[in-house]
Amino acid sequence: MHGLVLSAAMIDPRSNIVLIGMPGAGKSTIGVILAKRAMLQFVDTDLLLQLSRKRTLQDIVDREGYRFLRQVEEEVLLGLTVRNSVIATGGSAVYSDRGMAHLKSDGAVVYLQVDLPVLESRVHDYVTRGLAKRPEQDFADLFRERTELYEKYAEFTIKNNDMTHEEVCGQIMALTRR
To answer: Can you tell me the distance from the alpha carbon of 70 to that of 96, in angstroms, rounded to the nearest whole number?
Structure first.
């Protein structure tokens, strides 16, 4: 059975849908499809971060470190003022309490939950992806650390190990009444 967990009111007056989850969970891909289906704009905060610094995420991590990347990510999240949008966050957005509170103020937060083995099969560029992680941290440790944060902020959780993008979008639309 496909995983669907309800954890918020059935009618949500907020205008945005915020996608959180690990790298490889499908936030950007699903976000684009969802925005088209729900007739919303699409915003990718990783792209906004890169545009704001005119550098790749990996270059920022390499030169200034993961903490700096998280700081810049928080600035991007706090500066985001959009309505009627699907927002695909970077996987490390959940490290910022202030950033997540800002996103939640006008957005329903949906956690795209994917099991570690599935993520590992999807993410092949772990070393060069520009992840906001400690240098010694492997993907499994990062997964364990972030899972608690995703669960903390999630209002809706969709377990999408084996669902199509369209199925995930359909569930998000049903949950958020779009």
So the answer is: 8
CATH topology of domain 3-176: Rossmann fold (3.40.50)
Q: Which residues contact 93 (CB under 8 A, 6 or more apart)?
A: 20, 45, 73, 77, 99, 100, 103
Q: How far apart are the first and last CA of the chain?
A: 23
| pTM given for the model | 0.89
Q: So what's the pLDDT on residue 156?
A: 96
Q: Are 57 and 49 in contact (CB under 8 A)?
A: yes
How far is it, in rounded angstroms, from Cα 94 to Cα 74? 9
Cα–Cα dist 30/74, whole Å: 23
